[in-house]
Task: structure prediction
Amino acid sequence: MASWLQIPKNSPFSLANIPFGIISARSASRAVAIAIGDYALNLNTFASSGGFAQLPEIQPHLSVFGQPTLNAFAALGRPVHRQVREYIQNVFRVDTPFPQVLKENAPLQKDALVPLSEVTNHVPMQIGDYTDFYAGLNHAYNVGVLFRGPDNALQPNYKHLPVAYHSRASSVVTSGTPIHRPNGQILANPTATPKVPAFSPCKRLDIELELAAFVSTPNDLGHPVSINNAEDHIFGVVLMNDWSARDIQAWEYVPLGPFNAKNFATTITPWVVLLDALEPFRSAGLEPGDRDSLLPYLREKRAANVYDIPLEVELTNEGGKSSVIAKSNAKNLLYSFPQMLAHHTITGCNMNPGDLLGSGTISGTEPGTQGSILEQTNGKNPIKLADGSERIFLEDGDTVVLRGMAGTEGNYVGFGDCVGKILPAIKLDI
Amino acid sequence: MASWLQIPKNSPFSLANIPFGIISARSASRAVAIAIGDYALNLNTFASSGGFAQLPEIQPHLSVFGQPTLNAFAALGRPVHRQVREYIQNVFRVDTPFPQVLKENAPLQKDALVPLSEVTNHVPMQIGDYTDFYAGLNHAYNVGVLFRGPDNALQPNYKHLPVAYHSRASSVVTSGTPIHRPNGQILANPTATPKVPAFSPCKRLDIELELAAFVSTPNDLGHPVSINNAEDHIFGVVLMNDWSARDIQAWEYVPLGPFNAKNFATTITPWVVLLDALEPFRSAGLEPGDRDSLLPYLREKRAANVYDIPLEVELTNEGGKSSVIAKSNAKNLLYSFPQMLAHHTITGCNMNPGDLLGSGTISGTEPGTQGSILEQTNGKNPIKLADGSERIFLEDGDTVVLRGMAGTEGNYVGFGDCVGKILPAIKLDI
Result:
C-alpha cells in the first residue's frame, strides 16, 4: 500500500498499521489520534472539519475522538474500529477515493497532521485493572530453572492454564517517562539465618519484555467471555516493559506473589495497534500440538493464535552508547490473548474497556533471546555492552528501549519505541 | 450524644458515627449521603436547600455532593471531612445550634431524609486499584499451619512487612449483591500424579472477614507516603467479605499468588466510616512490643494503631435459619492501615482517591473466632449450624452476613450488614 504522504520506509507506522493513541499538541487538549509515518493525525480536528463525512456509520459517534482516553472509542466495538481504520487507510492511499478529504485539503493537513516530534503522548486508555500473565513459556522455564532446577522448572499447573497475577494499574506510564529506582526491603545476605531485611534502593533492577492487550467491550459480572468471542473483546496491543525489582521480589513474594517489586512503574508504548493490523502476522504459538489437552474453555479453533513479531531490547548507557542486549519474538507465547481473556473471566470476573492484559515476559530459548536481564545473567554472569562495560542488572543512567515490528520494509506494523531511563532512587528522610 | 431524630439504640449509625455513602432513591440520580439511625440524609438535596449555609468552608465544594461516587469529596482531604461530619452531628444534636437547618425544617426533612429501607446503595467510590493485605497474624498462622505445619507456619518476611497482593477492583460489589459460585479449574484428586485439572463449579467456596480502607488524598508516582502522614491519606473504613474459591486457589496460586480464586466477587458495606469516628476505639494491635524491630519507614508513633471493633459472621441457610459461626475483633491485626499505606508506597507507587486496601482476614486464636471457614473446618471438620445441619464450605442458597460494631448501646459506630447470598454456578455451554 502506497500513500501520498511521505512515510519513511523503516517507520513502524506504515499505511498497513494505523495505530490509535491519545495526544496533546499545540496547546490543544487531549484527543484521539492515529500515527502514520512521522505524523499524528488528530482525529478530533479531523472529525470537526468533516474528515469523516464519507463514513456515515461513524457520524453518531464523533464525540469519542474528543475524549482524553480511547475508552469510549474502544467500547464501540471491533466492527467500528475496523471501519475507521480502513477509512483512514483509504484517505491516505495514493489512489484515495476521497482526495478532497485530506490529500488535496492543505488547510486540514496543516491543522490535523502534527509531526510526531511536536506531540505529547499519553497513556492511551483509562486502565481499570491491569493483569499480568506469565504466558512466555521459555521465560517461565528459565526462571524456574534458576529457582528450582531443570527438573521442576515449570509448576504442574503451567501447561493447563495461563498463570497470572493482578498487578498495579495506577503506575502504568507512557514511553519516555523516567523511572526512579525503587526503595524497599531487601536481604543484604539472602543465605544468612535468621533472615533480616535492610532498607535499601533496589540493587537488582530488571526489565520484562512483554506485549499487552487492551480490552474493548465489557462483560457483565457472572458472565464469562467465550473463547470463541474473546478476540472481539480485545481492542489492540502495545509493547510493555514490566520493570521488576528482583531483590525486593525475592524477599516479599511468598506466599501471595510479587507486589512492591512491580508496583513502582510499568511502561507501555502510546500507540495501540489493532488486532486487524496484526492479522497478517498470525503464527502458531509454542506447542500447538498440546492444545488438544487443554480444557475446552481454553481451546481455540485456530492453531495460529499468536503473532510473529520480532522484538528487541536495547540498552544505552549514560554516555550514549547503545547495545542491543536481546532479540526475541512475540510468537514465544504458550497462550494467546483470547485464551488469557477466556481464563480471566471463566469465574465470571467482569472486564471493562481499558483493562490491560500483559503477556508475561517473552523469551526465546537461545542465549541473547531472553526478555529479562535476570535470565541472561542469573545475577552473576555479566552482559558485555558495546562500550566494553558490563551489566548484571540495570544501573542508574541506563536507558532501556524495547522495540517490536512485524512485516517488511515500507509496510511495517510496529509499536514504536518503549523507552525508560533509570534515575537514582529518591533519598528519603527516614 | 442525643439526637432529635429517633435513632434505634442498636443502630450501627448512631450520632457518633455519620458514615458516608452513595445512594439513589425516589428516582433521583446517585448522590452523596450519610446514614443516621434508620435514615439516609441525601447531602445533595440538603446542600441544594441551603443545609450547609452555617458551614462557610464547604461552600466552594458543594458540587461534590452531587457526584455519583465519593471520590471528589474524599479528595478534599481529612480537615474537610472532619468539618462536614462535625457539622452534621451538630445539625442532628438534640441541642443543635442550628435548629432552623433541619430540626425545625419539616419540608427539608421530607425531601432529604430518606428511610434506609427505600434507599439503593452503590459501591461508594470508583476504585482504581484494590490491594489486599494479609495483616491478620492469626489467620496467616492458622492457614500456614494447615499448609506447612506449626513450625513453618509464618514465612520469614511476615513480621517484617505487611504482605499483600494486588486484587481485582472491577468485581467489588456492594452488600446485598448475590454471588454466583464460580467455575474454574480444580484438582478432583489433589494427591494423584500427574496432576490433571477438571473444569467444575468451585466446591470449596469460602469467606474472608476483613476491614478495608479507602484512600482519600493521592501521592505522586515516585513519592512515598510517610508513616507519619499516612493516616491523613485514608478516607475511612468498610467491612469486606473477600470471597475465596479455595480449590481454584490451591491449583492456580503457584508461583504468582491467588488470581481466579479471588476475582469473581468481593463484597463491601456501602457506608464508609471515617477514621475520626473510629478514633475512640483505638487499640494496640498484636505484638506491639515487636514494633521496635520494624524498619523505620513502618514505625508508628502510637502503639494503639488499630481499632477495637467486635466482628461476627452469620450464616443463614436457604430455609432462613441463622447461626453465628464466628466472632472476632478488628484488633487482631499485626499491621495498621497507615503501615499498609507506607509500605505500599515506599517504592514510589502512586495511590489515588478510591484505592481500596483490604486488611486480610481477621481471626482470633480460639475456636469460633476464625474469619474464614477453611480455618474452622480444614475442609473436613464440619461446623454445626443452629438447624442441625453442617457446613464444611458454603452451599448454594447460603447467605453470609458480616457485622462489625464498636462502642456501646445508643452510641454504636458500625458498618451495617455486609451481605451476600450464594447462587448456583452458571451453567456454561462449553
Observations:
- Chain A touches chain B through 67 residues (CB under 8 Å).
- Chain A has two domains: 20-122, 130-423.
- Residues 74 and 414 of chain A are 20 Å apart (CA to CA).
